[in-house]
Specification:
With 160 residues, the chain is α/β, with parallel strands linked by helices. Helices cover 31% and strands 18% of the residues. A hairpin with a 2-residue loop joins β1 and β2. It is globular, with a radius of gyration of 15 Å. The two termini are 27 Å apart. The mean pLDDT is 89.
Length: 160
């Protein structure tokens, strides 16, 4: 049996974590690692202790804010970073695996927190119909490695 690469393990976990999302529009998962250890996980959704969008607004999702974005949810990257920091875990030098490339706001947080590498599965720009991935461009411009995942997802648990 061939041993899977850590990139494959962590991206597969991010894909499976995305299935925990209560977002009606998009499910996104994230895994924050240092070397070969997981330091935090996250998926998109409202802050803990509020309500779940798929329960409260099953047809339309949560209300939109003034810029057209979700008014309630935290992004998967934000949840992973916030949970690590809340538990006094340093994210400096960490690698973030995420199923959708970071938006510009998340990219600024990633850079500010000192995360050194982002590996993403799918393009945020393609999902949103934008000409380029602003978040990836921002990260690259300021020295954070950002690359699209090129491995194989062979052990992803499929929902029944």
């Amino acid at each position: 049996m061939q041993r899977p690469a850590f990139d494959d393990i962590f991206m597969e976990l991010a894909v499976n974590l995305a299935k925990r999302s209560h977002c009606v529009k998009r499910h996104v998962g994230a895994v924050l690692t240092k070397e070969t250890r997981i330091i935090s996980i996250g998926y998109n959704g409202p802050p803990a202790g509020t309500h779940n969008c798929d329960v409260e607004f099953p047809e339309t999702g949560c209300p939109r804010d003034s810029k057209g974005g979700c008014s309630l949810a935290l992004h998967a990257e934000q949840n992973a970073i916030l949970y690590a920091v809340k538990n006094q875990t340093s994210v400096d030098g960490a690698t973030l695996y995420v199923t959708l490339s970071p938006c510009l706001a998340c990219a600024r947080i990633i850079y500010t927190m000192g995360i050194s590498k982002v590996i993403y599965l799918k393009s945020y720009a393609a999902f949103k119909g934008l000409p380029n991935d602003e978040g990836v461009d921002f990260l690259t411009r300021f020295g954070v490695q950002a690359e699209q995942y090129t491995g194989e997802l062979t052990n992803v648990t499929h929902m029944i």
